[in-house]
Design brief:
two-stranded parallel ribbon, 3-stranded parallel beta sheet, Rossmann fold, mainly alpha, elongated
């Protein structure tokens, strides 16, 4: 089986946007691939270094979300990045192969830097996180990396490092990897903003209770010009329809409702109640599973996963040390 690696920064609980964009495909991929899932606490620290507790608190939340959504620890290896020091060591080898100019040109990092308003005071850890991510990917010799579009520059930079390393040290020990862009796409926020996100406060979490889900659905952005039920309405940009597209099973019924809404005579409340039922049907089994997970179970999964992942990482770092010549056999 081919190996794949994905990861998340543990900065908050996961939401429906994560489900649509990546979790859903991971549940499928774990049957076809040897899947490694990294909880990237070290990477999360690069823009949260003043608040590490936010990260450590969320490690447990994230794995709880993984397991309750259907990621199966007997098929996927889930582990904590910081507990694999070999990744950090590999990062240091790689930093020699990357220039400041190249890092500053990474479009994803550029975007994030603007959002965070670092100005001239860019923390080096943050600027270099793509190099750390290159180490994440290559230490596991992952052939494919399932990610969203925004991560493409990371894979590109990873492969540049691989080629440079192999050329300079005259080896083939590192492998290039391929991005596997998910078909799920991105989920709009309940406010109609292009992306559901925790920081924008417009996401429905996998761990939200019934009451919260209902409140969020009733806040959803609809068609502002659809005032009377009899008014013709617009389906495009209507958040309830966007969610129904993903969570309503009966496509024919949904198409008929869209036609009806366009003609006029269909109210938003009816649509919202329908979505509420669909989301409850989706979330109820997730909640059941979540209730059955004790902290002990979760830490056992993380312990096993981290032990297994570390074995692979050690194999690669030993090859790397050997290739560079830092083995010093006479010391042993
Ligand atoms: N950068 C990814 C994100 O922000 C998280 C991540 C860390 C990752 N290491 C990775 C993704 C390795 C894929 C492979 O979501």
């Amino acid at each position: 089986m081919k190996r794949i690696l994905t990861g998340d920064r543990p900065t908050g609980p996961l939401h429906l946007g994560h489900y649509v964009g990546s979790l859903q495909s991971r549940v499928k991929l774990q049957r076809e691939y040897e899947q490694y899932i990294m909880i990237a606490d070290m990477q999360a620290l690069t823009d949260n270094f003043e608040n590490p507790q936010k990260i450590t608190d969320n490690v447990c939340e994230v794995i709880k979300d993984y397991i309750s959504i259907g990621i199966d620890p007997s098929q996927s290896t889930i582990f904590i990045q910081s507990q694999i020091p070999e990744i950090t060591e590999l990062t240091l080898y790689y930093l020699n192969l990357v220039t400041l100019g190249r890092l500053e040109r990474n479009p994803t990092v550029k975007n994030e830097m603007n959002q965070k308003g670092f100005g001239e005071s860019i923390p080096m850890g943050f600027l270099c996180y793509p190099v750390n991510q290159a180490a994440d990917i290559t230490i596991f010799k992952a052939e494919c990396v399932p990610v969203g579009e925004d991560q493409l520059p990371m894979i590109e930079q990873t492969n540049e490092i691989v080629r440079k390393f192999n050329r300079i040290y005259n080896t083939e020990c590192l492998k290039e990897s391929q991005a596997l862009i998910g078909k799920g796409g991105r989920l709009v926020g309940i406010d109609g903003q292009s992306k559901a996100s925790k920081s924008l406060g417009n996401a429905i979490f996998l761990s939200d209770d019934t009451k919260t889900v209902k409140e969020k659905i009733f806040q959803m952005y609809t068609d502002p010009n659809h005032i009377q039920i009899s008014d013709p309405g617009k389906v495009e940009g209507h958040v309830v329809f966007a969610y129904l597209d993903l969570f309503h099973q009966d496509t024919e019924e949904l198409n008929a409702l869209k036609e009806h809404y366009r003609r006029g005579g269909l109210g938003d409340v009816m649509l919202k109640n329908m979505l509420f039922k669909d989301l409850e049907d989706f979330l109820n089994p997730v909640r059941e599973k979540r209730k059955s997970l004790s902290n002990d179970i979760l830490w056992d999964i993380l312990r096993d996963g981290t032990t297994k992942a570390r074995k692979v990482a050690i194999e690669t770092i030993e090859e790397v040390r050997d290739v560079v010549g830092f083995t010093y056999k006479s010391l042993k």
